[in-house]
Q: What sequence folds into this?
């Protein structure tokens, strides 16, 4: 296992890190209760500025999905694939109960099994290597693969 | 003060090697002037836009340095529609009598490249492979098909129709009709959307000359009147492109707001429209936009497409010029291309693809990143 010092989150403030049980960090409006991800200072629902960070649920249901069928343009894409090694990957929105729907890449052994409503779990793991360090990102994975 | 469109011009859409986007805009502007028999120095103002082919106001170096008010417009996929709306307001305010709305573009081949930070998103969003508009379109129609029981058959029929119409349009990019099987068997791009269900970034230019309605007959015998123009942005709870999260509560799409506002302004309803151009970035978009614009109930699209209601001879012809699917999407010009087509249809000049029975009212609709929509309603 690489040491924590060699593991860098893909962005600050997206998820709790370092952690044995990482969670996505959203924000909740103290006035109207609206939850957003990533955390933001203004509330998109009531236009107030009274929000605070909260940790989001790590389990949810797939609300919609697609399969990215071609290698995305670089920049901005930084995934490790080449045109020869590229494999289509899943993207979707996972509905976290009573909170928000989060857009996410989907990690699965079988993209053909994606269905609206399936149970999904948060995973935070290595995405790519950059300058000798592991870049850590969040994904969701079908619960039956966890 | 009502506003009329008295001159229209276009540079063919698609790929034109050796001709810049700006030159395509200049060509369209000259065609529009020629259409109504006016000169560039008759224009009191212009609004123009391009997303990837330079500043529209630099057209004046080629068209002539007349000192007119020229304002650049940049408003995502609604750039052309916003230029038109600005020109409409300039005349309606009483400040000007006559002027031009123009748009052009020239995009590199392949999917649009997005700079996430320019859209207020984290850099990570692009790093990880989510800053792609086709994913949004795939995810939105995937959910819609699930909720309203729409099958892949309907997605395929939309594409077949639009390419069939494009084959009858001399200014279209894709001028080959595709068979049902061609579309059904094309490569999967972003499930459930296949290659021939998507439009591509492209090139082209389009221009309109607008004037006070009470002066229109001085210039032309066949003016088209702008009865409504509306541009709206997303509200909390609508499902939009490049949303890192979505609210649990649902709100109507910006198209619904723009459409409602436009119908109210025009004082007519969807049932009164004779021909429509609806944003078909891909097949799914046209299907959802049929309902979002009020032309049918959610879920009725399956029946509408199967029964041919949106064909040129159907009860509501949609995308008679082939839409974005057959024309491609030069962002700055795309919304104006829709207006150009409606003008041709209402003037009875659409040739092989003319809607029968002398259409009197037309409708255009654009939708795009990051969640905005522009609608116009026109009458002969």
A:
């Amino acid at each position: 296992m690489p040491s924590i010092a060699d593991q860098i989150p893909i962005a600050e403030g997206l998820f709790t890190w370092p952690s044995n049980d990482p969670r996505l960090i959203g924000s909740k409006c103290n006035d109207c209760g609206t939850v957003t991800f990533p955390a933001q200072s203004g509330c998109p629902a009531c236009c107030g500025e009274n929000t605070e960070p909260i940790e989001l649920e790590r389990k949810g249901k797939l609300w919609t999905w697609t399969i990215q069928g071609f290698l995305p343009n670089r920049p901005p894409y930084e995934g490790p694939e080449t045109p020869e090694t590229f494999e289509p990957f899943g993207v979707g929105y996972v509905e976290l109960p009573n909170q928000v729907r989060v857009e996410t890449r989907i990690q699965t052994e079988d993209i053909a099994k994606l269905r609206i409503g399936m149970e999904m779990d948060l995973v935070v793991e290595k995405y790519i290597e950059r300058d000798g360090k592991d870049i850590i990102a969040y994904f969701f994975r079908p619960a039956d693969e966890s | 003060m009502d506003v009329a469109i008295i001159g229209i011009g276009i540079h063919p859409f698609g790929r034109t090697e050796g001709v810049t986007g700006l030159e395509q805009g200049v060509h369209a502007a000259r065609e529009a002037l020629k259409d109504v028999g006016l000169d560039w120095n008759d224009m009191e103002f212009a609004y123009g836009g391009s997303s990837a082919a330079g500043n529209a106001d630099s057209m004046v170096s080629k068209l002539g340095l007349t000192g007119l008010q020229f304002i650049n417009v940049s408003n995502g996929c609604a750039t052309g529609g916003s230029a038109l709306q600005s020109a409409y307001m300039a005349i309606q305010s009483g400040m000007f009598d006559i002027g031009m709305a123009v748009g052009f573009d020239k995009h590199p081949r392949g999917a649009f490249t997005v700079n996430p930070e320019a859209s207020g998103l984290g850099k990570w969003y692009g790093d990880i492979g989510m800053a792609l508009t086709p994913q949004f379109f795939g995810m939105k129609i995937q959910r819609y098909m699930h909720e309203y029981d729409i099958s892949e058959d309907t997605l395929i029929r939309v594409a077949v129709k639009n390419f069939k119409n494009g084959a009858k349009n001399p200014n279209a990019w894709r001028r080959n009709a595709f068979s049902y099987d061609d579309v059904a068997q094309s490569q999967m791009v972003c499930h459930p959307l296949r290659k021939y269900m998507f439009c591509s970034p492209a090139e082209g230019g389009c221009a309109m000359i607008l004037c006070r309605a009470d002066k229109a007959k001085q210039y032309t015998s066949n003016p088209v009147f702008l009865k409504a123009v509306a541009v709206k942005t997303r509200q909390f709870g609508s499902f939009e492109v490049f949303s890192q999260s979505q609210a649990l509560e649902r709100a109507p799409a910006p198209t619904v707001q723009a459409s409602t506002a436009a119908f109210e302004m025009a004082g007519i309803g969807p049932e009164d429209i004779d021909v429509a151009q609806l944003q078909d970035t891909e097949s799914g978009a046209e299907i959802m936009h049929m309902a979002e614009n009020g032309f049918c109930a959610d879920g009725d699209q399956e029946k509408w497409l199967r029964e041919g209601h949106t064909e040129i001879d159907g009860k509501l012809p949609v995308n008679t010029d082939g839409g974005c699917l057959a024309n491609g999407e030069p962002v700055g010009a795309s919304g104006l291309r829709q207006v150009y087509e409606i003008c041709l249809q209402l003037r009875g000049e659409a040739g092989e693809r003319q809607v029968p029975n002398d259409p009197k009212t037309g409708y255009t609709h654009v939708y795009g990143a990051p969640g905005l929509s522009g609608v116009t309603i026109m009458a002969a």
Summary: Chain B touches chain A at residues 110-111, 113-116, 122-132, 134-135, 138-140, 142-143, 146, 187-193, 236-237, 243-248 (CB under 8 Å). Chain B has one domain: 3-109+199-379. The longest strand of chain B covers residues 3-14.
